[in-house]
TrEMBL record:
<comment type="similarity">
    <text>Belongs to the UPF0102 family.</text>
</comment>
<dbReference type="InterPro" id="IPR011856">
    <property type="entry name" value="tRNA_endonuc-like_dom_sf"/>
</dbReference>
<protein>
    <recommendedName>
        <fullName>UPF0102 protein NMP03_10630</fullName>
    </recommendedName>
</protein>
<dbReference type="InterPro" id="IPR011335">
    <property type="entry name" value="Restrct_endonuc-II-like"/>
</dbReference>
<dbReference type="Pfam" id="PF02021">
    <property type="entry name" value="UPF0102"/>
</dbReference>
<dbReference type="InterPro" id="IPR003509">
    <property type="entry name" value="UPF0102_YraN-like"/>
</dbReference>
Length: 116
């Protein structure tokens, strides 16, 4: 039961993140894409840039400070490398971003979170 509630919170957070990114001029290309290397929550495009976005939702803003770690980012980056040929067009750039969400707080968008 707890796992199902956590999964639903994650899905709700991803929907909120997608809506936020759309207001910032991003086009949502895909959601919850799984690869053998890991999962990417959102894949978004703005002009010639494709971002592979990890979304983390926590009950409090304080919990966001510990929501993402290097190991998780490395998995997202590895998945992004696998997915790049599917989503990038010639001349596009790509990056891995993180979007942190907590009730009552504006979304925190960390651009280029993975520099590997």
């Amino acid at each position: 039961m707890l796992r199902r509630a956590a999964d639903q919170r994650g899905r709700d957070g991803e929907a909120e993140a997608a809506a936020y990114l759309a207001t910032q001029g991003w086009t949502i290309l895909d959601t919850r894409i799984r690869t053998p290397a890991g999962e990417v929550d959102l894949i978004v495009r703005r002009r010639k840039l494709v971002a592979f976005v990890e979304v983390k939702t926590r009950a409090t803003a304080a919990g966001l400070d510990f929501a993402i770690d290097e190991r998780r980012l490395a998995r997202v980056a590895a998945a992004a490398e696998m997915l790049a040929p599917r989503y990038l067009k010639p001349g596009d750039d790509m990056r891995v971003d993180v979007l942190l969400l907590a009730p009552g707080h504006p979304p925190r968008h960390i651009e280029n979170a993975w520099i590997g």
